[in-house]
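Researcher: Please translate sequence to structure tokens.
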Amino acid sequence: MTDSIDPAIPLDTNEFVEWADRPRITTILPAVVIGVLLLVSGNVVSITQATPLFLAVVSLGVAIPL
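Model: Translation complete:
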């Protein structure tokens, strides 16, 4: 498994790599969808009703995917 690791990363003799891949996109996809929906709905409500709700919803919409 250590063959796919960059040789610039030093491994001690008693260290080994258990996993060398990237995270799956499906794990974060629901959070991104909810965040985008919050951003869009906050924009729509703020524009149509001329309220500062957008400022509160933007921070929540950005924080959820992060």
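Researcher: Any highlights?
Model: The mean pLDDT is 76.
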